[in-house]
Amino acid sequence: MTEPLLKIADTPPTSVPSDATVQVAVATMNEARVGAVCVIDDGMLTGIFTERDLMRSVVGAGLDPATTAVGDVMVGKPRSVVVGSSRAAALELMLKNHFRHLPVVDVDGRPLGMLSIRNLLHHQVERLRDGMDSLEQYLLADGPGG
Questions:
Q1: Domain total for the chain?
Q2: CB proximity list for 33: less than 8 A, separation 6 or greater
Q3: Is the pLDDT of residue 130 over 70?
Q4: Residue 53's closest CA among 115, 101, 112?
Q5: What is the mean pLDDT of the chain?
Q6: Contact partners, residue 105, CB within 8 Å, separation at least 6
Q7: Which letter does DSSP use for residue 28 in this model?
Q8: CATH number (domain holding residue 74)
Q9: Which comes out higher in pLDDT, residue 9 or 139?
């Protein structure tokens, strides 16, 4: 699992500032067809807002998406992985903490991408498929001693 994270993450990450309304954040998520946005202020990751946050912290709490700021309902100081981390480390962090989205940041904490469990699983399925194709070609090859 040595594939660079940014090759499989959504880059640049879909993002909104913390003073954006939830309605704007949801529209941004819909437009980008993603389930989470990085909340970025002054170039730094300050939070993450996900579909789950929308359900629990906004709809479930009876808040108005048109007037509620993302900064009031986001997960602040979210866990993230540094760009050089392995896919295995990212996956372990996501599974252990029940995350479906994980920001990828540089060493200074600036967001570079958003990794989803779907990104990781899709990439792994492709690798397995490629391995199976190679094995099939090897087994079907008619060569000396074959």
A1: 1
A2: none
A3: no
A4: 101
A5: 89
A6: 45, 80, 81, 82, 83, 111, 112
A7: H
A8: 3.10.580.10
A9: 9
The predicted model scores a pTM of 0.81
Q: Output the six-digit token pair for 104.
A: 């990828």
Distance CA 140, CA 146 (A): 9
Specify the long-range contacts of residues 62-69, CB closer than 8 Å, at least 24 apart: 63/22, 65/21, 65/22, 65/23, 65/26, 66/21, 66/22, 66/23, 67/21, 68/21, 68/22, 69/18, 69/19, 69/20, 69/21, 69/22
Token code pair at residue 93: 């962090």
Q: Is there a domain that residue 126 lies in? A: yes
Tell me which residue range forms the domain holding 86: 5-139
Quote the pLDDT of residue 1.
41
Reported confidence tier of residue 134, pLDDT bands at 50, 70, 90: confident
3-state helix, strand, coil in the chain (%, to 5): 45, 25, 35
Residue type, 98: H
Would residue 144 count as lying in a domain?
no
Judge whether 9 lies within some domain: yes
Which is more confidently placed, 137 or 115?
A: 115
Cβ–Cβ < 8 Å for 49, 16 = yes
Q: Which residues contact 94 (CB under 8 A, 6 or more apart)?
A: 100, 102, 115, 117, 120
